[in-house]
Every structure is written in structure tokens, then in C-alpha cells.
Specification:
By secondary structure, the protein is α/β, with parallel strands linked by helices. It is 42% helix and 17% strand.
Length: 307
């Protein structure tokens, strides 16, 4: 594991409160400046603060990840990006976490003949929704999304000096609250980002199947992506242009690919993401990050050679 990744895991693994985010951003800006990049904080809607390293306006590729971290949940937020019915079923567990207690409390009040059963149900639902988004911070965020942050900053450090004008790096805020930081960044840079390739790393530290969810506007860059991220070292790589849904910041950009590391369930042959949003989120594979960082350098090199 690189010193950079070790430092993030040891000192900045929880980035939820304003103070925690400010401490991490100060450190990350210092890393960028030390590496020779211009870096600044862009403020957006709902108090979001995005870290921008390099110049997206001049770069050929923008590498991104969200740096905010989630609240702790009593169960993992499971995700199956290639199987929409299973994905919806798994996400329904979160809905049940809110709906069942709210419905049960309303029913209990009504059976007891007490008024305001509907108000009680709404209050319970709001309380549980608040815990999902604003509850105690998850103390372990190795995969979600320290792995993505480490990949972006690792690619920043590894980029050869001659290639640096061709790459930019952005760390988004408030992804966990609904892609607010990335949507704010897109609104501020719409003309540039409508045609600039963005590669977004989210939960890339736990799994050997690298899935690239490629949006329609980025399909013309599939040859470059496939050449840069060829399978190697035991990693499978899949470039998916349809039949895949992964809810992360790339959805805010028309010319983007979202990258996630998945595991395969042997019994059902199901590609899935697990453990995140719980104390079990402890895997930030050094090999995963190295594979993606090396691919980022190869991708930028191809763009620099054929602008």
C-alpha cells in the first residue's frame, strides 16, 4: 500500500462533518501543490466543496471520485449494477427499514385509539431517514470511498510531468446526499464537461471484476478505455454500454464512465458490491488501486499521443 493511501486510511478515513472535510481538503491541496499542480476548492450548492486539481478546461481526461463519507447503517448497502431487478430488490431493504417501523407505529397508535397516528408515522419515517443520511459516521470507509480518493490522488502523483497538462482531477462533495457536489460542478462547467471524458472511481477497492459503466456520450472513447484498462494481474475488466446501472457521480455527466470493483457470487453468478455503509467496509486493495492508477496513466498517454 502506498504512503498516500496509508495516510488517508490512518488520518482521514472519516470525512463527514465540515471540520473533517476541511482537514482532509487542506491535506489534499498540499499534496497536489507538492506534486506541482494548481489546486483550488470550488464551492457549490448546499454548501458543497469540490477539490479541483489541474485544469479541466485544458485537460483531455478528468479523473474523479467523491470524498464525502456516509452514516453508519445496521446493514450493508448491497448493489448489483448488472441486474436491475436484483438491484431494486436489494435497495428495497433500505425502504423497508423506513417503512415497516413507520407503518407499525401508526398501526399501534390506531389500535390503541390514540389520535395523530399519521403524524406519528411521518415522524418515525423522518427520524429513520435522518439516520440514513445524517446519523453517526461510519468509522470504516476503506472501499466507499477512500479507495476512489486514493485512486484519483494516486493517479495525480503517478502522472508523468509531460502528461500532466492532459489530465485533471476532481474530488466531489455530497455524493452521499444525492450527487450534489458533482451536479454543482457540472452546472459550473457544462460547456467543458459536455465533451470532456470523465472517469469516476467509486468503491474500487474490494473486488476483482472492474466494471466500467460507460455513458452514451463516452462510447466514442471505448477504444482508448479498452486499451488503457486491459485485463491483467487477475483483474477482469468489463466495458458496459447498456444493461447496467450504477448510482454514482458519473450520472451527472453525459461523457463519463463510472468504475466499480465487484465480486461474483458463486451460487448465483451475480456480480455485486457489498459491505459498504457498515463497519465491515475495511478493504482498500492496494493491487486494485495500482491497477487503476496505471490504467489512468496509459489512458492519458493515448490522448496525448492522439489529441
Amino acid at each position: 500500500m502506498t504512503p498516500l493511501t496509508t495516510t488517508i486510511l490512518a488520518r482521514f478515513q472519516v470525512r463527514k462533518t465540515r471540520r473533517q472535510k476541511a482537514a482532509f481538503l487542506e491535506w489534499a491541496v498540499a499534496q497536489a501543490v507538492r506534486a506541482g499542480y494548481p489546486a483550488h476548492i470550488e464551492r457549490g450548492t448546499f454548501g458543497s466543496r469540490n477539490l479541483v486539481i489541474g485544469s479541466p478546461q485544458e485537460a483531455d481526461v478528468v479523473f474523479a471520485a467523491h470524498y464525502d463519507t456516509c452514516a453508519k447503517l445496521p446493514f450493508a448497502n448491497l448493489c448489483a449494477p448488472k441486474n436491475l431487478p436484483v438491484f431494486l430488490l436489494l435497495q428495497g431493504l433500505i425502504f423497508l427499514f423506513v417503512f415497516v417501523p413507520a407503518f407499525g407505529s401508526a398501526l399501534a397508535w390506531r389500535l390503541l385509539g390514540l389520535p395523530w397516528a399519521g403524524c406519528v408515522s411521518a415522524a418515525v419515517a423522518l427520524l429513520l431517514m435522518g439516520l440514513l443520511f445524517f446519523g453517526p459516521a461510519n468509522p470504516h470507509t476503506a472501499n466507499d470511498n477512500t479507495s476512489g480518493v486514493a485512486t484519483v490522488l494516486g493517479a495525480m502523483q503517478a502522472m508523468p510531468e509531460a502528461l500532466r497538462p492532459h489530465a485533471a482531477f476532481v474530488l466531489f462533495d455530497l455524493e452521499e446526499l444525492g450527487l450534489l457536489g458533482s451536479s454543482s460542478f457540472y452546472s459550473a462547467h457544462k460547456e467543458t464537461m459536455d465533451r470532456r471524458l470523465l472517469v469516476n472511481f467509486d468503491c474500487v477497492g474490494d473486488g476483482r471484476h472492474m466494471l466500467f459503466a460507460v455513458r452514451k456520450g463516452a462510447r466514442r472513447y471505448l477504444p482508448q478505455l479498452r486499451a488503457a484498462y486491459a485485463p491483467a494481474g487477475g483483474f477482469a475488466v468489463e466495458m458496459a454500454v447498456k444493461g447496467v446501472f450504477y448510482p454514482s457521480d458519473q450520472l451527472c455527466f453525459p461523457c463519463a464512465a463510472g468504475v466499480v470493483a465487484l465480486k461474483r457470487a458463486k451460487r448465483f453468478h451475480l456480480l455485486y458490491l457489498g459491505r459498504i455503509h457498515t463497519r465491515r467496509d475495511t478493504e482498500c486493495g492496494a493491487e486494485n488501486i495500482a491497477f487503476l492508477v496505471q490504467g489512468a496513466v496509459r489512458l492519458v498517454r493515448r490522448f496525448a499521443a492522439n489529441p
